[in-house]
Write a structure and sequence with these properties.
There is one protein chain. This protein has 150 residues and is an alpha+beta fold. The protein has a domain at 3-104: Aminopeptidase. It is built from four helices and seven strands, in the order E-H-H-E-E-E-H-E-H-E-E. The protein has helices at residues 13-27, 33-47, 89-99, 113-122, and strands spanning 3-7, 52-58, 64-71, 74-80, 105-109, 125-130, 141-145. Strands 1-2-3-4-5-7-6 form a seven-stranded mixed beta sheet. Helix 3 (89-99) links the parallel strand 4 and strand 5 (105-109). It is globular and about 40 Å long.
């Protein structure tokens, strides 16, 4: 699969929100439904303009398959359409974040074991843990850094 990474714009937000939704529904079975709705309706739309936002698009179909949000050296969001999982989209986006944008840090929900495994496999190292997520909700968060040799 050939994937192109482009800067996302405000016109992409509805599509990116839908990707966020399919991704979270596939991987975040620990989220309470009211928290999911609050994040979808309030937090994610506020996060989009706060980060440098990029989308992964399939070259042939022009379908957006995932997106990445980076702030300074931290991957703040990386979500893949549930239908595109397992096809290299996440790795392509993470490679872009690390090699093109200089990202070396990220946080991930401890209960999202698929994402934890993905980042560990990539070479990230856990450097800490918080009992609450960034919004103060009771979803433990793991903090990761990428060693300099990668």
């Amino acid at each position: 699969m050939t994937i192109r990474i482009d800067t996302a714009s405000t016109t992409d937000y509805p599509c990116l929100l839908e990707i966020w939704s399919t991704s979270v529904l596939a991987t975040h079975d620990f989220l309470k439904s009211e928290d999911y709705e609050e994040i979808k309706q309030q937090l994610i739309p506020a996060y989009f303009p706060a980060v440098s936002l990029y989308k992964a698009t399939h070259n042939q179909s022009q379908k957006t398959l995932g997106f990445l949000g980076v702030l300074e050296s931290c991957v703040e969001m990386l979500f893949i359409d549930a239908c595109a999982r397992g096809h290299g989209v996440g790795t392509t986006l993470l490679n872009y974040a690390v090699h093109e944008l200089g990202a070396t840090k990220l946080d991930v929900n401890e209960q999202n074991t698929q994402a934890v495994g993905f980042y560990l496999h990539y070479g990230f190292v856990q450097t800490g843990r918080s009992d609450l997520d960034a919004a103060g909700k009771p979803y433990p968060t793991l903090h990761f850094n990428l060693p300099k040799h990668i």
